[in-house]
Amino acid sequence: MSTTTLPSLENRITTVDALRGFALFGILYSHMIFWYTAGPLPQKLYSEGIDAASGIAMGIYGLLFFSKFFSFFSFLFGLSFYIQMKSLMRRNENFILRYGWRLFILGIIGLLHHALWRGDILSIYVPLGFLLIFVRHLNTKIILIIGLVLILNIPTKIYEAVTIALNSAVENPMKNMEKEGQHYYDIVKSAPFMEVVNDNIKALPTKFDYQISSGRLVITFGFFLLGMFAGRKEWFENLDSTKPQIKKIWATTSYILIGTLGVGIVIAMMNFSLDLKLQENKWVMWFGGQLIDILNSGLTIFYIAGLTLLMYKPRWQKILFPLADIGKMALTSYLMQTLFGLLLFYSFGLGLFTETTPAINALLCLGIFAFQILFSKLWLMYFKFGPVEWIWRSLTFLKFQPLINKQPETVPVTIEK
C-alpha cells in the first residue's frame, strides 16, 4: 500500500465526482443514440435501414445504458443531498430553509430546461428532493429497506398485479405511441424553435404521467434513498475501511444479475422453441417486467460498486479520475449536452435528425464527451465552479460566491500498487 495525492476542490470526494462524470457519459450516450429525442418515435426508425454498426450501437444502448443511468445519477443526487446537509448543518444553517430554496432554484432551471427539451430530469428531481427532506431522519436500516423495495419497482408491480387479478387492463404507459410518435417526429424534424418550446411545455403533464405509470418515479426516489444511505455510512469518505463492503455488494449483485438473466433466457428459449405464446399471458408479461426492473437496478448498483473498486487501482485511476472534472461541473455539463443535441439534430440547428445513423450518433457522443472533459479541465484551472453551478450557488446563498480558483488543495488517497 502507498499514498498519493489527488487534486481536490475544497476537499471534494474525487471518487464521487468521477462517478458523476461517468453517469454523465451514460446519459449523453442514451440521448444521443436516437438524435437527442425524448419521446416516442415511429417504430420504423428503430428498424428500417439499420446497418450492422448501428445495430451494435443500439444493442449496447439497450443492454448497458437503457434505464440504468437515470438511476445512477439519482443515487448520486441522494448522496450529494446528505453531503450538503452535513455541510449546511456544520455552518449552523437552517437546513430546511436553505436546501428548500436551493431546490426551488433548481426547479426553475429544470422548467426552463424542459421548455427547451422535454427529456429534462431536473423537474422530476425537485419534487422528490423536497420529499427527501421529510424522510432524512428515518432510521438508517429503514431507509435501506425502503430504498431496495422502491428500486425494484415493487409498489408499481403490486398495483399491476391487483389490476390483473381484478381482470382489468393494466395501463400501458406507451399507449397511443404511434400517433404521439408521428407528432413528435414532425416537431423535431421541422418545427421552428418557439413551436418546439410550446410543445414541450404542453408535454410536461404527459412526462409525469409516464414517470408514475412506468414506476420510474418510484425507482428514482429509491435510488435517492440508497444514495443517502451510502452518505450516512460514509462509504465514499472512508474508502479503505469500506472496500470489503463495496466488494461484497459488487459480488452479490453479480450473482443476482446472472441468475435473473438466466431465468429470462430460459423463459425466452422455451417460449420460442415450444411456441407457448407467453407474450399473450398477462401474468408472464408482469413477471417479465419485474425481471427487467431487477436487471436495470441491479446493473446500476453493479456499475457504482464496480467503478468504485476500480478507482482503488492506479492504472484505472488514470482512466477514470479525469472524469472528476466534468463531475464537478455536472449541472453545466448536463445542460451543455442538451445544447449540443438541439443544435445538431433539431430543425432550428443543423437538422441532422434521421440524417445520421445511430452508429454515427455514438461517434458524435464520444467527440462531444471528449470536448466536455477538456473544457471542464481547462475551466477548473481558473475557476472554482462551473458557470451554472456558480449561478446556482450564488442564488442559494443570495450573494456572489468567489469564482476565481486558487491553488487546489490535496487530500491523501490510499491506493493499491
Brief summary:
The protein contains 18 helices and two strands.
Question: Could you characterize the architecture of this molecule?
Answer:
This protein has helices at 14-32, 52-65, 69-90, 95-116, 122-134, 140-151, 154-165, 177-190, 193-202, 204-214, 216-232, 239-274, 282-310, 314-320, 323-328, 330-345, 358-382, 387-397, and strands at residues 2-8, 409-415. α1 packs antiparallel against α17 (358-382) and α5 (122-134) crosses α11 (216-232). The radius of gyration is 22 Å and the shape is globular. The protein has 417 residues and is mainly alpha-helical. The protein has one domain (2-415).
Largest sheet: 2 strands, antiparallel
The run of helices and strands is: EHHHHHHHHHHHHHHHHHHE
Number of helices: 18
Strand content: under 5%
Rounded mean pLDDT is 87
Number of domains: 1
Q: Which sequence of strands runs across the widest sheet?
A: 1-2
Q: Give the helix proportion (percent range).
A: over 70%
General form: globular
**Extended strand count:** 2
Q: N- to C-terminal separation?
A: 6 Å
What's the assembly state of these chains? single chain
How would you classify the helix and strand content by structural class? Answer: mainly alpha
Low-confidence stretches: 1-11, 409-417
Radius of gyration, in angstroms, nearest whole number: 22 Å
Describe the secondary structure blueprint for this structure.
Layout: E1 2-8, H1 14-32, H2 52-65, H3 69-90, H4 95-116, H5 122-134, H6 140-151, H7 154-165, H8 177-190, H9 193-202, H10 204-214, H11 216-232, H12 239-274, H13 282-310, H14 314-320, H15 323-328, H16 330-345, H17 358-382, H18 387-397, E2 409-415
Antiparallel strand pairs: 1-2
